[in-house]
Write the structure tokens for this entry.
Amino acid sequence: MGDLLKENWKYILAALATPALIMVFSNKLKAQTAVKSNANTNLNAFLTMIQYAEGTYGANAYRMLYGGQLFNSYAQHPKIAITKGGITSTAAGAYQILFRTWQSVQQDLGLADFSPASQDRAAVELIRRRGALEDVLAGRFDVAIYKCRKEWASLPGAGYGQGERSFTSLVQVYQYAGGQMAA
């Protein structure tokens, strides 16, 4: 029996090691998948939070004009200047993107229309341009809010003289939407 073990030790070791290796790689893969899943969840929660902050969250979010009216076609940004409360704005869609901002993002990303998918991509690009995308993905919510405050007038510290949402309310919406705060 001893000679048999000596001759076949490599095969025996491989047979014993394989389940252990599978467990190690499986756990590592699960951890990587969880990180990606959390990152996607955090991004989606952050986008939901922006919609809430901008007052567009709901069934008509992607059709919302500044001031609450709706537009009908996703073919292009509506480019309608609306004055309300002494402020004139061309903001439109779920993320209240200004027409001039839309032109830049549309060109950079090659967006063909103002559809919900295009609006989502544009919002992610605006977050990236503000240097906050990695913070959003990692759940560094407070840092991401700070970096994005000049992009969305409703975020705390924006300073545009429009209604700013409280940080606490934004955290609640973000977490309710599944966002995870970094430790």
About this structure: The first helix runs from residue 2 to 54. The radius of gyration is 24 Å.
